[in-house]
Fold this sequence. Notes:
Largest sheet: 10 strands, antiparallel
Helix content: 10-25%
Number of strands: 40
Bound molecules: (2R,3S,4R,5S)-2-(hydroxymethyl)piperidine-3,4,5-triol
Strand content: 25-35%
Structural class: alpha+beta
Mean pLDDT: 96
Distance between the termini: 55 Å
Number of helices: 12
Low-confidence stretches: none
Amino acid sequence: MDPVHLRAAGTSLLLTFPAGEAEITHFGADLGTDLPDPDLLTPPIPNSALDVPVVVGIIPQASSGWQGRPGLRGSFLAGGRPGRGFSPALRVESVDAAADAVVITAHDSDLGLTLSSHLRVHPGGLLEVAHTLTNTAADPYQLEELAVVIPLPRRAGEVLDLTGRWCRENHPQRARLRQGTWVRSGRHGRTGHDSSLLTAVGTPGFANRAGEVWASHFAWSGNHEQFVEQLPDGRRLLGASELLGSGEIVLESGQSYTTPAFFAAYSNRGLDGVSARFHEWFRAREHHVGTVAGRVRPVVLNTWEAVYFDHRIDELLDLAASGAELGAEQFVLDDGWFAGRRNDTAGLGDWVVDSQLWPEGLTPLIEGVNALGMEFGLWVEPEMVNLDSDVARDHPDWIVGPDPAAHTTGGRLPLEWRSQHILDLTNPGAWSHVFDQLDALLAENNIAYLKWDQNRDLSEHGSAGAPSVHEQTLAAYRLLDELRAAHPGVEIESCSSGGARVDLGILERTDRVWASDCNDALERQTIQRWTQAVLPPELVGSHVGPTRSHTTGRVHDISFRAITALFGHFGMEWDVRQASALERETLARAIALYKEHRALLHSGIRVNADLPDEALRLHGVVSRDGREALFAAVAVASSYAEMPGPVPLPGLDPDASYRVEVLLPSSADADHSHAFTQIRPPAWLRDGDAFTASGAWLEQVGLQLPVLNPEHALLLRAVAL
Length: 721
Ligand code: DGJ
């Protein structure tokens, strides 16, 4: 079979077909058109090894000599007993290639298995891979694992992945790649606060803007594993698979299983190059919020950290008016509005307006909010249930658990988490109950936005006594898909105790994520930097929280909080009526800046400088034509150095001249104008607050920054002259 070579935006994917297998011979830099004879690529055979060259197929198989983690694990149930067909020999039968995609079909005709592999290189160079396995035999096939893998070159010697917890999502960790398998397992039934949004393997020392990097993302909101494997023969792979429960997938004759999509990007200019490929892919989607004509990201005022469960219409309207005065465009009523919900122990599952709190329904609030010129948004948590709810009382059998019996008839429930359980959405009655109530809510009220929350792990998650995270995840996806189809104007946010469900699977049916419950600007600097390693800023909700952070107790100046929130989908989550005059004035200025620059922030190229000082960050967004940019210079800690020194502003056009000015804070309230911080700011800040230089100068030499106190930031704008 002839090799298949897909190329886009500086990336090549080369597939060859040795010994009847499909092998990714190269995924990386563009190879051009002059390729060697594939027969000459066969590797040597070392001593004390198999007598044939080992092929690393797109599904690595022991039948081709692979001794690492197998791509496919499973067996047929013959007379109810597993084992037969444990080692498949899938061999390619057909290759259907187009300019940007290929479908490869392989069979094991002795066993009765067919594998269909779909690989696509998107215009921005992002690779997408998924496999479908079909049982063509008579016996049922019990699937244990079907993985997607890509090979890595040997110079990819360092792994960076992300981890976290509630209020500290997406923090990076790095390690040298060694022999063995580095596995990140997610058994939360949801994506998980600790899930690695990005797994990057690169040349040693790869950085934001330097080094070669191969990076992947697994688009799935259920249990999963992501791994990097290095074998004794020196080969290495990057991969992922759905983590299936015992007996969770049994394919009857003719049935199929499809893996979630696996995305991979190559960059020869560090992590920013990887992010650019993901961002371009997001923005090319038809339903992407910045792509759909006329849809911009409104300034949000969310009620959670403002009033929590204390819902009183007069207070809420007063809060809305105060937000509108500052420039808010959307008012989101968070948890606490539905039947019986006075705290977090009751009400989940009954998606009807609480008639005691809201005797006339939500209409008076919605109309009041609309009259202030704002859209209305509402919080829901559709997959969950409190035992103290009508739905749990009426349908105890709709609650998931390890036992086939309902808890009211002797079955065991999983441990409670925030006093809540999970509705079995694989049960058609439960699914329709949720769909019908949400559908009615959206039909009867003028709701522009749903904050769709999900606040617990799916532990001991079973339906009819068998594990069901896979089906539950698909049922939740279907719920979102069908509600969106029925109410196409409604935008939906994926929230999961903050950022526990951030992945490209959920983002195919939602419009933004709540990256974290932590509104502390210092924590947010890291959370947002790494969430945006994959997601473009317009998909990452970012709110200015109270002066003293509710989740960390830290106190930050309003300028630091506002500058941090500007590099995302900007909002406020705070009783802004309590803000001081200076805070309100700065907030109003930040909101005006956000409105003025959101087109740039939500379409430009995200950049992160590489700085030697860990106490300092410099990040920004450069317009696609390179004519303007916004940067944030951020002191995240106290520095070892007396002065920041000149700091590069990356990503500008080297040949253009730029005027650089400070937008926030103004010199009147800037911390750096205090004599305690420094005697004198740099010359350009004294002489009219602007600096003029070429893009080459700004990237290579940099800009002299004022001394910044820890946990303070400067917002800079560069405009080509
Ligand atoms: C968890 C979310 O992440 C918060 O923002 C808030 O919506 C609460 N749930 C409400 O219960």
